[in-house]
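FORM 7B: Structural annotation worksheet

SECTION A. Query
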Amino acid sequence: MRGPLLLCTGTVIDNQERKGLEMVDKLIPAAGPVRHVRASTPADLAAVDALLAGSYPRLLKRDYPPSVLVTALPLISRAQPALLGSGTYYVAEDAQGEIIGAGGWSVDRQLRHRGHIRHVVADHRLQRRGIARRLVGHALRIASAAGLREMECWATLTAVRFYEAMGFAGEGPMEVPLAPGITFPCMRMRQRLEQP
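SECTION B. Predicted structure
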């Protein structure tokens, strides 16, 4: 049995609460390809890397020019080891246990009541099948249970409509700095979280 989970907010979710949150996810009908959502581990690095590298180029190409993608994709299409082991990043698995989606959240470094949606991806071959919706919904429920009051998202231009459907409101375009001299156009979006 796993021990208590200490979230970035300083909130401790014990095994009973963790089981309750995981049970909420199991009660959601397993429509579509997702059979299970679980916290990621560092052992998921290769699978999440492959998912990002296989899906981001295909999904983003209709909304970004090649001149942007050639510099950004090598930086954004890699799994982040610290995020994988954070306890607030999740993977969606299909009936065979294959990872078909990933995404999560982290706490804002300055405003502890705010979280950020992080590195969401769904298998490009399974688009519009509820994978990202299931992952983001899971992340929002856990963040709310941890006491966060709002969630921010720096949405790719491709994902703006998805996040609007998830209840986020656009606050305006932004340029995310990826490396010296390299930025990535996104839309800053925000959602108030309901408290349990």
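SECTION C. Observations
The helical segments are 15-27, 45-60, 66-76, 81-84, 131-145, 160-165. The chain has six helices and nine strands.

SECTION D. Sign-off
Analyst initials: ____
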